[in-house]
């Protein structure tokens, strides 16, 4: 099992309504049935007292393998990436992680 | 529900055996029963082809609330933080996130 992690650094704009109600359903539709699960969290505080979270939003997309993700994502990459400016001006960091636990 | 995310940037040293078999059981013991779940992933690739993951390791600790986490963590902060140099020289980024999905 792998996760595709998408980390959005703090920025001026993040439209949670659009993100949860339009962008997320879009990726769920386009990446089905390869996409097993979506986790989304809103950064509310940093580790040190009084600090902000480094990432305003963290999203994790769960797939069975890197190959399954790539095969599902490739035909829809433009539609998915092109939708990002509709809800944020942040440039997300993306990485793939192997689930260990 | 909240997650405490611990993101370890790439560094020289990360002892996976120690981390999974000694550090993680230590925090599970010290933070029980407040700690509901631990997710751990190993960064294997960045978002762009041929790039490395920004974070070599990502850990998420799940708690019912920020208050529950802080109450459980405070008495054991030194023991937990003091164990980090035993498995890595990375300086982890820590943040608290509210689970939205």
Describe the structure.
By secondary structure, chain A is α+β, with helices and mostly antiparallel strands. Chain A contains three helices and four strands; from the N terminus they run βαββααβ. A four-stranded antiparallel β-sheet of chain A has the order 2-3-1-4. The longest helix of chain A is centred in the first third of the chain and has 16 residues, at 16-31. The model of chain A has no long low-confidence stretch (mean pLDDT 97).
Index terms:
homodimer, 101 residues, alpha+beta, 4-stranded antiparallel β-sheet, 4 strands
The main β sheet of chain A shows up as:
4 strands, antiparallel
Instruction: State the helix count of chain A.
Output: 3
For the CA atoms, what is the radius of gyration of chain A?
14 Å
Largest interface: A-B, 32 and 32 residues
Number of DSSP strands of chain A? 4
Q: If strands are numbered along the chain, what order do they take across the biggest sheet of chain A?
A: 2-3-1-4
Low-confidence segments of chain A, given as residue ranges, are none
Oligomer: homodimer
């Amino acid at each position: 099992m792998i996760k595709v992690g998408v980390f959005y650094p703090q920025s001026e704009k993040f439209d949670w309504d659009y993100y949860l109600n339009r962008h997320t359903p879009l990726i769920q539709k386009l990446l089905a049935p390869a996409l097993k699960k979506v986790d989304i969290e809103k950064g509310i505080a940093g580790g040190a007292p009084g600090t902000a979270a480094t990432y305003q939003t963290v999203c994790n997309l769960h797939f069975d393998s890197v190959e399954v993700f790539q095969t599902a994502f490739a035909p829809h990459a433009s539609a998915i990436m092109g939708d990002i400016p509709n809800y944020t001006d942040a440039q997300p960091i993306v990485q793939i992680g192997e689930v260990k636990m």
